[in-house]
Amino acid sequence: MMEQKKKKKMRKKNKALLISVSAVALLFAGILYYGFVMTSSGYWLIAKFKPDTEEQKLSYSSAIETVEMITDEGFVLMQNNDNFLPLVTTEEDKAKINVFGTRSVVTLFNSGGSTATDVTNAVKLEDALQETGNFELNQDLLYLHYNFYKNGKVSVDETSAPKNRSDSEILGEEENLILPEVPKEAYENSSLYSDGRTIIDHAKDFSHTAMIVVGRGGGEYVDLSPAELRLTEEEADMVDIVSSNFDNVILIINSANVMELDFLDDYPSIKSVIWIGYPGETGTKSLAKILNGTVNPSGRLVDTWVSDLMNIPAANNYRQINEEGNWSGLSHYTNAPEEFGYFDHLSEGIYVGYKYYETRHDTDESFAYDEEVLFSFGHGLSYTTFEKELLSMDVKDDEITLRIAVRNIGDATGKDVIQVYYNPPYTGEIEKATANLVTFTKTNEIDPGDTEIYSLSFTAEDMASYDYQHHLAYVLEAGEYEIMLKENAHTKIDSEFYTVAEDVIYNDENAGSRSTDKQAATNQFADAHHIDDYLTREWNPASRAFTGPQEEDYVASQEILDAMTYVVPTDEELGYTANDLPVYGQELDTPIMLSDMAGVDYDDPRWDEFISQLTLKELADISGTGAYQLAEIERLGVPKTLQPDGTMAIASNIYSGPIMGTEGVGVTYPTPSILAATWNPDAGYLMGTSIGIEAQAFGYSGWYAPAMNIHRTPFNGRNFEYYSEDGVLSGKIAAGVVSGAREKGVISYIKHFALNERELGARETLFTWANEQAIREIYLKPFEIAVKEGGTLGVMSSFNYIGHDWAGGHEGLLTEVLRNEWGFEGLVITDANMYPHMDVMQMLYAGGDVTLDVMAVWQGGDNQNKIMLAAAEDPATEIAAIKNLQRASKNVLYAVSNTWKMQ
Length: 903
Known about the structure:
By secondary structure, the protein is an alpha/beta fold. It has 27 helices and 31 strands. It folds into four domains: 2-38; 75-297, Glycoside hydrolase family 3 C-terminal domain (Rossmann fold), CATH 3.40.50.1700; 315-547, Immunoglobulin-like (Sandwich); 563-902, Alpha-Beta Barrel (TIM Barrel). Helices cover 31% and strands 17% of the residues. Strands 1-6-5-4-2-3 form a six-stranded mixed beta sheet, sandwiched between helices. A five-stranded parallel beta sheet has the order 24-25-27-30-31. Helix 3 (54-74) packs across helix 9, helix 3 runs antiparallel to helix 20 and helix 4 (125-132) packs across helix 9 (284-292). The protein is globular, with a radius of gyration of 29 Å. 54% of the residues are buried.
C-alpha cells in the first residue's frame, strides 16, 4: 500500500515536472516565434554579437576623418582678446592648463531622443588636449572633478575618470541638461593638501592659464528655459573664482543652444571663447588643434548671441514663464480637452534672429544694438587677418554675379567666409528685414600675402518677398536693392545697388511663376493667420510678439475644436463615379519588376502600369507599415528598405534596431549646427557621402535626416538637431548633405516638415499660427532649398498643426507647395504615428504616402494598414482610397528604385 502511494506521488511529480517543462518550452517557443517570425527583434539581438565586416570598418575610418574635417572648420572662435590663442606648445615644452567645469570631464558629444547614439568611445576632452594638443593638464583638478561627479565628494585623491555618457538615451535625461559643479567652498578648502594651501593656490603654481567648460544638454520632450540658459549659481561662482585668480582664461561652450554670456565684460581675464556645440565622436581633437594652432579656426556663428534671451520677440510666445525665468506652463485652450489643444503664436512674423536685430538697429535710433547683441550671426575669428573687396557686380538675364577678392594680410594660413546679404526697398506693403543672407561660400586655405578671387551668383527672384495680403504671390518690389558684402550680419564691408524698375509679381496674371517653381505660389496657409497682430517695423511693445497671448487667445473657436478630429470624405462627396475606379491587382503576361523601373523618369506612364499590379493588401502595406523600413514585395522584386533615424548618425537604436532586425551603428557626427558653422556646402556634401558609405556597409537605404527646422529661439530642446536661425544657410548646407547621400543611393528624409519649432505640446495637437510670409520665407525656406538643390527623395512631416490642419495631413503643404510648386518627386512619411490626431486617412488624402507606424511590427506586421485596406474595400470610399494608395505607392517605389540596392 505504501509502495503504491509512493508511485502515485512520483507520477504526480513527474506530471507536474512535465507540465512545467512543457510550459517553459512553450514560453521559449513563443519568445522565438515573436522574436524571429512576428518581429525582427531576435535578429537584432543576435546582430549585437556579430563582429564588424571589413566594409563596416572602412566606413568607420572614413567617417571619423569626416567628423574631424567638419569640426576643424565648424568650431567658432568667438573671442580672442590680446590674441591670447593659440597657445604655443612643443613636445619638449608643453603648455600647462588648469581645467575647470564638470562638462570638462562629462562632455556632451550628442544629446537625447531619436538621434541617440553610442558615445562610449568618443574621445574625451582631456584625452584630446593631452594627446592631440600636447598639453599638460593639472591632474589634481581632474581628480577633483572626477570625485565630485562620481560621488559628490570634494577630494583630490587619485581616481579613475568617469565613463563617457551624454544625454543620448532614447528620450533623454532631464537631470543631464545641467550638471552640478564643484561648490565654491571646495576651492577655499585648506584641508585638501598637507601644506594647508588651497587647490587654487596649487593650480596657480601649476599655470596662469585656466580653461572653463560649461554646457547644456537637450533632447526630445525638452525645452530649456531662459534661466537654464544662464549660468547657474554654482557655475557663476566657478567663473568668478577662476577668472579672479588666473590672468588668462579660456571659456569653452559645450552647448548647441545659445546661452547668455553677458558676464564676459565683467571678467577681462576671460581672453578667449570657443563654441564647440556637441562635437561628436572625435571632434574634441579639433578643439585641441585650434588651441595649439595646428588648425586655424574658420567657423562662423549660426545664431545671434544676445545678452537677454527674454528680449527675443518670440520669447513671450514660446511658453508661459514665471518670475524666476522658468517655464510655468504651456499655452493651452481652456475649452479643449485637458491633454490636447495647445497653441503657439509665431507673432514675430519674419523677424527671427538677426533679421530682427539688424532691422531694429537700422530703423530704430533708440535701439541699443551693442547692449543687446554680444555676437552677431555670422561672427567668427581667425588667427590671421583677411581683407575682402567687392570688385564688381555683373547682371545678365536677372542673374547677379559678384566678384570678390580675399587677401590674407596676416601671418598664418587660413580660410575665410564670404557672406553676401541684401537690403530690399521697404514700402510698408510687405514686411522686409534690412539684412537677408542670399549667398555665401568658404574660401580655400589662403597663405599670408596671397589673394584669391571668388565669383558668387544668385538671381533677382531670390530677393522676392511673399505678399500674403495683396497679390498672394511672391513679389519683387520696385526700388533699389543694396547688395552687401559683410563680415557678419552686422558689419558691412562694401556694397552695390541693383535696381528693379517696376514690381515683378510672380503669378499667372503677371510674370508667371519663379523660375525654380513648377507653378506659381499662392496662399496655402490662410487659415493659419489666426493672430493678425504680427510684429512690424513699428516695433509696437503692445504687440503680441512682445507681450505674448492675450486672455481671449486661450479660448478656442468651434472651428479649432472641430479640427482636432478628421472625417473621411465619401467618394460621392469628392465627385467620383464608378467610372473613376482605378485598375489594381492586374496580372500582366510578363510581370514588371521594380528592377525594370530603376532609372525610369517619375512622369513616365510605365509607372502607372507597374503600380496597377499591386493588390489592395500590398498597397495598404506599402503606405501603412513604414516604421524604419519600407515594405517588401518579393513577387515584384521590391526589397525591404531599412531606414534608421539619424541627424547625428545613421544608426540603429533601441527603437529602430528591433524593428529592422539589425545592429548597424554609425559614427556620431558633430551636431548639425557645427556643420552649418563651417559655412561650407562642400562639408555638407562630404558628410552626406560619408553617411551614404556607412549606409551601404550596414545595409541601409534610407535615413531619417537631416533635420532642418529653424532656431526660432534658443529654448527648443531639439535645436541641436537643426542647423541655424537662417533658412538660406540651413538649406544650402542640408542640400549638400542630401545630394551626397543620394549619390550613394540613400533616401534622406528631410524633417520635420514643417514649423516644428517647439518640443513640449507638439504631440498633443499643437496649433501653430503664423502668417504665410513667415511660413514661406523663414520656416519652409530650408526645405525648399533641400528639395530644389539637394534633390531629396524623402520628407518627414511633423507632429504639429499649421492652422487647422495637422502638418502630416495638410494638402496645401504636402501637395500644393511640396509637389506642385517645388517639384518634389519622392515620398512623404509621418513622424512617429502614435498620437490620436495623426489620422492616416487624412495623411493619405492630403498627399502623404507612408505612416511611421511603430506599433505595426509588434502586432505581427499589421496595424494602421488595416484602416487603409478597410477604406479601399468600403464601397463608400474605395475610389479615392485606392487612387491615393496607388499615388502613394508610386512615390514610395520611385524613391526605392533610386536606392543603391536597385542600382
